[in-house]
Amino acid sequence: MPTSPTEVLLSWSGGKDCLMTLQRLREDASWRVVGLLTTVNQHFQRIAMHGVRRDILQAQARALGLPLVVAELEWPSSNDAYEAAFAAALDEAQARWPGLRHIAFGDLFLEDVRAYRQKQLAQLDWEGIFPLWGEDTTALAHRFVAEGHLARLCCVDTQQLHGRFAGHAFDASLLASLPGSADPCGERGEFHTLSFGGPLFEHDLPLRQGELVTRDERFRYCDFLLDD
């Protein structure tokens, strides 16, 4: 008899890599994605690191047909506080889906990040999976565009990439204009993205570009809003 798929939670930043991870998991009959876990800055009501508004996060979850589990993070915060919030969110997920022990990440090649996640999860009796690990990031980026997924750059590290890229569509023209020093998927933190449409979404999100802001004299954020 065929075995039932294993339930898995997906770590969700709102960007393209976690969207491609969702696609990969949905293509694999051995997994069933039950929900998305996102860390949100309580003070700003935005996705941590990416700076995406909470209402857009909620709209993403609805359009992808998945419930949302939120790790609420105070501001300012610390790594200990992050780990506590993350652990509390995993506890909440297990209460909703008893027996859940796996969480997927969209990490691509940073060994230290993967090792950190695995160590943290082992302490909580969870297991991390990395469906995209080791894939060629150039091929992955071009596949994302070719398959019709939609994303915009919501944050740029201006120490690695020119700030003019903030707000740019993640498309063929962007990939052609990235400097050779930049990973095409931004895996070293060159940029972060906001996914808002394409084949996995029930409908494209009606985004409107807002203001551009530079924080910490380094990170260039592009705000996005939902049109009514």
SSE blueprint and pairings:
Layout: E1 6-11, H1 16-27, E2 31-41, E3 46-47, H2 54-64, E4 68-73, H3 79-96, E5 102-104, H4 111-123, E6 127-129, H5 137-146, E7 150-157, H6 172-177, E8 191-197, E9 207-215, E10 219-226
Parallel strand pairs: 1-2, 1-5, 2-4, 5-6
Antiparallel strand pairs: 2-3, 7-8, 7-10, 9-10
Structure summarized in a few sentences:
By secondary structure, the protein is α/β, with parallel strands linked by helices. The protein has helices at 16-27, 54-64, 79-96, 111-123, 137-146, 172-177; strands at residues 6-11, 31-41, 46-47, 68-73, 102-104, 127-129, 150-157, 191-197, 207-215, 219-226. The strands form two sheets. Strands 1, 2, 3, 4, 5 and 6 form a six-stranded mixed β-sheet that branches.
- The coarse overall form would be globular
Q: Note the total helix count.
A: 6
The biggest beta sheet reads: 6 strands, mixed
Tally the beta strands. Answer: 10
Distance between the termini: 49 Å
- Model regions low in confidence, pLDDT < 50 over at least 5 residues: none
- Helix percent band: 25-40%
Rg calc: 17 Å
